[in-house]
Amino acid sequence: MNLEELQASYDFSDCTILITGGAGILGGEIACALVGCNANVAILDRDIELAKKVMERFPTRVKGRGVRVYGDVLNLETLHQANETVKAEFGAVDILINAAGGNHPSATTSADLSFFDLPLDALRHVGDLNLLGTILPCQVFGREMAERGNGVILNISSMNAIRPLTRIPAYSAAKAAVTNFTQWLAVHMAQNYSPRIRVNAIAPGFFLTEQNRFLLTDKDTGELTPRGQSILAHTPMNRFGTPEDLFGAIMWLISPAAAFVTGVVVPIDGGFSAFSGV
Ligand SMILES: NC(=O)c1ccc[n+]([C@@H]2O[C@H](COP(=O)([O-])OP(=O)(O)OC[C@H]3O[C@@H](n4cnc5c(N)ncnc54)[C@H](OP(=O)(O)O)[C@@H]3O)[C@@H](O)[C@H]2O)c1
Questions:
Q1: Which atom of ligand 1 is nearest to the CA of 240?
Q2: Which of 59, 80, 155, 261 has its CA 20 to 30 A from that of 181?
Q3: Residues 6 or more apart from 275 whose CB is under 8 A from it?
Q4: Rounded distance, CA 127 to CA 215, Å?
Q5: Whole-angstrom Cα distance, residue 164 to residue 39?
């Protein structure tokens, strides 16, 4: 299904969607796709200039509008401020997509950096960004969902959450925690606040973006690294994902079509997680 057909199937008119890390590669593409479904989309990121560039790509001739807000997912005060800005512009956040996250080279083992020498700061940064960077926005934007009795949260986990990949221990552990937290919050919201608050996640397979390009391709030649080759060999569909591959599952999970779906983590991975390698 192409993007136009998909967008014709989902209408998020009058819906406020906030995307953390919305200036990033996946977050930015998701933002563009959802504006095309008539959503009002708030891009929250630390890099407001990059957010502006994403907004310049927003489709025109749709009802959906965009706003960019500064926010650090590890700083509650900035998230509260962002919430006020978005409410003034569009009204309360109906759907929160937690797309801020990622690995960092300094938390990655290599020939020059053993597991035993991974710096504490780097490990803490990757752990905090992915786990606390998901929990804190859920506290800030989820509180009003709890008060209203409806809302949707979508987190981004990873293949690492199912089985850890080599070299990236902090990222793997943090994404496993994101999966666990998604299930925890889904149960907590439904039991304590409202069954109309749903919390789910997607677990993307391998998409070439800035955070993993250094692992999957050679920076000089652009050729696949042995790791990149191995990933493709373990992906039955034999290709990396593109951001468009995420849209169908995301739109379904955040829409009323998934009204009885909460606490799930949907792999979008070309079959990677299903393949034993044999
Ligand atoms: N790419 C993949 O193959 C893949 C696979 C599985 C899961 N994921 C997950 O998908 C999500 C999006 O990844 P991506 O590939 O689109 O990465 P990306 O391009 O690096 O996007 C992440 C965005 O989050 C922002 N960010 C980082 N720290 C932040 C903070 N403290 N507060 C607010 N924003 C912050 C980044 O801004 P800065 O530039 O300022 O750091 C960047 O704009 C991540 O959770 C990632 O772990 C990606």
A1: 3
A2: 80
A3: 234, 235, 236
A4: 19
A5: 35
Rounded distance between C-alpha atoms, residue 36 and residue 198, angstroms? 23
Residue among 211, 190, 174, 209 nearest 264 (CA) = 190
The pair of three-digit structure tokens given for residue 65, joined into one six-digit string: 């509008």
Backbone angles phi, psi at 19, to 5 degrees: -115, 115
Q: Which of 209, 206, 258, 253 is nearest to 228 (CA)?
A: 206
From 172, 182, 211, 246, the mutation candidate for ligand 1 (largest count of ligand atoms within 8 A of CB) is 211
Are 264 and 47 contacting, i.e. CB atoms less than 8 angstroms apart? no
DSSP for 64-84 reads: --EEEEE--TT-HHHHHHHHH
Show the tokens assigned to 42: 């708030």
Average pLDDT over residues 250-255: 98
Paired tokens of 278: 């044999």
For 166, list phi and psi in degrees, rounded to 5: -65, 155
CA–chain centroid gap for 184, Å, is 18
Whether the model pTM is above 0.85: yes
pLDDT at 214 over 90: no
46 CA → ligand 1 middle, Å: 11
176/257 Cα distance (integer angstroms): 27
Q: Which H or E element spans position 232?
A: helix 226-233
**Alpha-carbon distance values, 106 to 72, 171, 219, 270 (Å):** 20, 11, 17, 29
Question: Residue 70 catalytic?
Answer: no
Would you give the DSSP letter of residue 110? B
Pair of tokens at residue 9: 């199937």
Write the pLDDT tens digit of every residue in 216-248.
999 899 999 999 999 999 999 999 999 999 999
Q: How many angstroms separate the alpha carbon of residue 69 from the centre of ligand 1?
A: 16
